[in-house]
Design a protein that fits this description.
The chain has helices at 3-27, 32-44, 58-81, 86-92, 96-108, 114-132, 140-163, 168-175, 180-191, 194-202, 205-232, 235-238, 244-257, 263-279. By secondary structure, the chain is an all-alpha fold.
């Protein structure tokens, strides 16, 4: 990999890792579902008027948007708002790699190697350890939501696979049209008008920075950079770099939020990272040469 492309990969993973504590800053003032709706509204508008629609069936775009926005990021934001540390969330979302492997076996006839099976067992052990070592004031439901978001992201990978989407940036921009309305309705059904009435007073400098970072850095720039790398190099060389995301997520959470994992937390974090490294040795969907490349990152 050329030096400039390696630096781009590091920058993208750093932005994605940093996005977790930055999102936490936004959640301090805005309802998590409403914040997610605003993120995707800004990711779609006005860009859909300037970015050509990707050449895939409209149904795939809608399905991906609902999964990506409602079933993935809404769950992550809700889980963080319920107390899941952003660093832990950045790690747990990487479990999507194992769920994607499972979908590959179920739908595409893939076979899991010994390393993937070992990695899956180690990942499960690490997950149990992280949950058990979490502070008592963190609801287990929050961790369940983050794991649910990892399942959703793996389903999004399958949609990109079967839809044969090539223009991933355009795909994300157009898909972002679909989450805001369901998320706004869910916000209203769950909390009534209170989040909307409070929103003008909550749009201070910190929440605006958080929103801008989520939209333009974590979504627009990072998806462009990551998929540029996927066009230039095999997936097997690019995707393992996503292991840097939880590293940056945990470190940036320590710096920005002062959240420091304990000794046992570090042990389980390293166990999960080892499991992810083993699981990435044989990536999903790479057995078929004609298959489009799949992004496994956030």
């Amino acid at each position: 990999m050329q030096k400039k492309h390696f630096l781009l990969a590091v920058l993208v993973t750093a932005v994605w890792g940093l996005n977790f504590p930055v999102t936490k800053l936004g959640l301090a003032g805005i309802d998590p579902l409403l914040l997610t709706a605003l993120r995707f509204a800004l990711a779609a508008l006005p860009w859909v008027f300037f970015v050509k629609r990707p050449q895939v069936a409209f149904g795939w775009i809608a399905a991906y948007g609902l999964i990506f926005g409602v079933a993935m990021w809404a769950l992550i934001n809700q889980g963080i708002s319920w107390g899941v540390p952003p660093g832990s969330a950045s790690l747990l979302i990487q479990f999507s790699a194992f769920f994607t492997l499972g979908w590959g076996v179920l739908f595409f006839g893939e076979r899991l190697g010994r390393l993937q099976l070992i990695g899956s067992v180690l990942a499960a052990a690490g997950l149990v350890g992280i949950v058990l070592c979490s502070p008592g004031d963190v609801p287990r439901a929050g961790f369940a939501l983050v794991i649910g978001s990892a399942v959703a992201w793996s389903m999004g990978n399958v949609i990109i696979k079967v839809s044969r989407a090539r223009e991933i940036f355009a795909f994300v921009v157009w898909a972002s049209l679909f989450p805001p309305i369901p998320l706004l309705l869910l916000t209203w059904l769950l909390h009534g008008s209170a989040p909307f009435n409070a929103l003008p007073s909550q749009l201070n400098g910190m929440t605006l920075f958080s929103l801008a970072f989520q939209v333009y850095a974590a979504t627009h720039f990072s998806y462009w950079g990551w998929n540029l790398l996927l066009r230039e190099y095999p997936v097997s060389r690019v995707a393992p770099l996503s292991l840097l995301i939880p590293v940056f997520g945990i470190v940036s959470s320590m710096v920005i939020l002062g959240q420091h994992p304990g000794p046992f937390d570090w042990a389980f974090i390293l166990l999960v990272l080892l499991a992810l490294a083993l699981g990435s040795v044989k990536l999903p969907f790479t057995q078929q040469r004609s298959a489009p490349q799949v992004s496994t990152s956030r």
